[in-house]
Amino acid sequence: MKIPQTVEALEELGRVQLSKSFFMREFLYSEISQIENIINIPENPELAIASGKNLCEKVLEPIQQQLGRISIRSAYRSREVNNKGAEKEYNCAKNESNYAKHIWDVRDADGYMGATACIIVTSFIPYYEKTGDWTALAWWICDRIPDYADLTFFPKYAAFNVSWHENPTYPKSIYSYIKDPHTNKKSGYLTKEGMSNFTGDHAEFYQDFIKGLII
């Protein structure tokens, strides 16, 4: 597939079904693109599609199947869009750090493909607003979604970046910018390789959320 140059070609890209529930179009919207007037279209559509299919089939679909509707907040970014986001401090990492993450159509420095989406699990909102506990969802994904690469949580609705990565030895981690209510500092790493809680079952931390789940 060539880089879309017409409305018809972009519509064709948008209609690509990445998985049972998800189509390419919903991953292309970008506030940065809208405000900065930069087109958010993949330079390498085939690689973007391949990366996106893995993210959707192996990570997003299993989450949605078990927890209900997922809302896409931010996903694919072109290099130009991401670079502008980094320049203007729109909470975007530099391009080199986002290859095979938000920039789906560029492989990382080691030649691996990957993809990231920022999502909200809508069924989690009531539990999060009541308890302030974002870790219940984090531990559930850690235990139940083996193909996630990493998670990064944000305060509003406990939205989080979730990634799929082609490298089987990718160092998984869970990180949060949500402030600890006791210290008023961002929570930082919940777990990563080398931490004592990295392996094992964590059901005790999300059983209350699952018991009260209504989807």
Characterise the protein shown here.
- With 215 residues, the chain is an alpha+beta fold.
- The protein has one domain (7-211).
- The protein is built from 8 helices and 6 strands; from the N terminus they run H-H-H-E-H-H-E-H-H-E-E-E-E-H.
- Strands 1-2-4-3-5-6 form a 6-stranded mixed sheet.
- A hairpin with a 6-residue loop joins strand 5 (173-179) and strand 6.
- The relative contact order is 0.12.
- The model has no long low-confidence stretch (mean pLDDT 95).
Our measurement of the CA-to-CA distance between the termini, rounded to an integer number of angstroms, reads 38 Å
Q: What value does the Rg take, in angstroms? A: 17 Å
Overall mean confidence score, pLDDT? 95
Number of strands: 6
**Main beta sheet: strand number and arrangement?**
6 strands, mixed
Taking pLDDT < 50 over at least 5 consecutive residues as the criterion, the unreliable ranges are none
Strand arrangement within the widest β-sheet reads 1-2-4-3-5-6
How many structural domains are formed by the residues?
A: 1
The number of helices is 8
Secondary-structure element sequence?
Answer: HHHEHHEHHEEEEH
What share of residues are in beta strands? Answer: 15-25%
Overall helicity: 25-40%
Structural class designation: alpha+beta
- What shape does the CA trace take? globular
Instruction: Tell me which oligomeric state these chains represent.
Output: single chain
